[in-house]
Amino acid sequence: MLETVAAPEPNGRPDGVWSMNTARAESGEVTVAGVPVSLIAAQFGTPTYILDEADMRTRARAWVEAMEKAFTSLAGADVYYAGKAFLSKAVARWMMDEGLNIDAASEGELRTALAGGVPGSRIGLHGNNKSEAEIALAIDSGIAHIVIDSIPEIAKVARIASERGRSAPVYVRLTTGVHAGGHDFIQTAHEDQKFGLSVTSGAAYDAITQIAGTPGLKLVGIHSHIGSQILSTDGFAEAAKVVLDVRAWAAQRGIEIPEVDLGGGYGVRYTSQDAVPPAPEEFAEVLAQAVRAHCDATGLPAPRISIEPGRSIVAPAMMTLYTVGTMKDVATDSGPRRYISVDGGMSDNLRPALYGANYTAAVVGREATGAGCRSRVVGKHCESGDILVKDVSLPPVEIGDLLAVPVTGAYGRSMGSNYNMLPRPGVIAVRDGQCTVLLRRETIEDQLAYDLG
Ligand code: LLP
């Protein structure tokens, strides 16, 4: 069935996929937090990512409140915003304001969070192949924890810590064997992939024993991340049990592990035909039940729990605004189709090409009326797979129309590229009628500046 979007219905409404402050003005034009999209296009150009600040903050706070509520009677909980979904200095600051910490997965993310004013003690560092520089910076900044992802990394982190005369707080990333999540590329807890230390093979137990006996390392937690775009609570409960069993195994050997991180991966709706994912309260309650049941059964003190949501906080808060440049109608075996070309493409949203992800689109610069036409929104790159929205019913669109694709906040800009030497779009935050440039649009001059001839 084709996705039809007549008017943006703010997220939170039964069929809504647009950020909560998206509305259609009487003029027929769409506004975000009171700012007409045509004004954003005129001032900042297109394509541009528009971030509804209040929406993102609200989603972030909802996770903190849900986790606090579910875990008060246990040992409490922390929420780390997964910066890989989308990070800028302002976003890092907002997340801190809302009571979250930051999960960084590279030196760039770590330095952005620090530059945004987040203290190292509120940042965790991930990565399956961390560089010396990343580990050193993490330790120097007083990082909350470094997540150990492989056996050789144990000695590497210990050495770098001792060179700096400090001890390093570490987590161990466990591969729990739980299958969950969207596309194969975003499932992370099966055996045959690059992340983590296997519980099944025993590597996880070896790592724990080794870390406990390594001076300069402080084992503060164990970690599991099962995948991304997960729309059910089952996998999380299952993975939590595996992780807590490992913790109990360690306790029997005198190794106390005070913290457990259950990762991110909470899914969102991309189109109004997608299932509505469980709310943060529901996920939090499932996690708390798993922890409570395990502690009751083992008699162990409850661990402090953390989670790392990224997508569920930022995806629905952002849309990408494009200008329609040209069109063509084709005949296909299944009927006519209109190709609508916009001024961005797979360089600002790789997800459809990489994962076959579905999105929707709407004409947002005016109230477009007329019979829906089976349409495909494509970019301007030199690939026929440069598709942004595979199938959508759109009213007659005109060249020059502003078109928006909602729910692009997670992994849109952060996986963006300069393919075909397109400058990456800027990110404009909108709140209470005011626009703030979070990331300025790149220019061709930026690209020429690092081409040294
Ligand atoms: N924690 C760890 C260790 C992770 O690897 C990830 C995501 C997260 C947290 C955050 O997961 P989220 O809540 O955002 O699902 N580029 C893909 C998603 C890759 C996810 C990578 N890791 C996509 O666009 O679907």
Automatic annotation (TrEMBL):
One of its GO terms (biological process) is lysine biosynthetic process via diaminopimelate. Residues 65-315 form the Orn/DAP/Arg decarboxylase 2 N-terminal domain. InterPro entries: Ala_racemase/Decarboxylase_C, DAP_deCOOHase_LysA, De-COase2_N, De-COase2_pyr-phos_BS, Orn/DAP/Arg_de-COase, PLP-binding_barrel. Pathway: Amino-acid biosynthesis; L-lysine biosynthesis via DAP pathway; L-lysine from DL-2,6-diaminopimelate: step 1/1. The active site is at 382 (proton donor). The keyword Mitochondrion does not apply. Gene3D superfamilies: Alanine racemase, Lyase, Ornithine Decarboxylase, Chain A, domain 1. It catalyses: meso-2,6-diaminopimelate + H(+) = L-lysine + CO2. Pyridoxal 5'-phosphate binds at residues 265, 308-311, 411. Pfam families: Orn_Arg_deC_N (PF02784). It comes from the Bacteria. It is an enzyme of class 4 (lyase). One of its GO terms (molecular function) is diaminopimelate decarboxylase activity. Keywords: Amino-acid biosynthesis, Decarboxylase, Lyase, Lysine biosynthesis, Pyridoxal phosphate. Its cofactor is pyridoxal 5'-phosphate. The modification N6-(pyridoxal phosphate)lysine is found at residue 84. Its EC number is 4.1.1.20. Substrate binds at residues 311, 351, 355, 383, 411. Specifically catalyzes the decarboxylation of meso-diaminopimelate (meso-DAP) to L-lysine. Belongs to the Orn/Lys/Arg decarboxylase class-II family. LysA subfamily. NCBIfam families: lysA. Homodimer. This is Diaminopimelate decarboxylase.
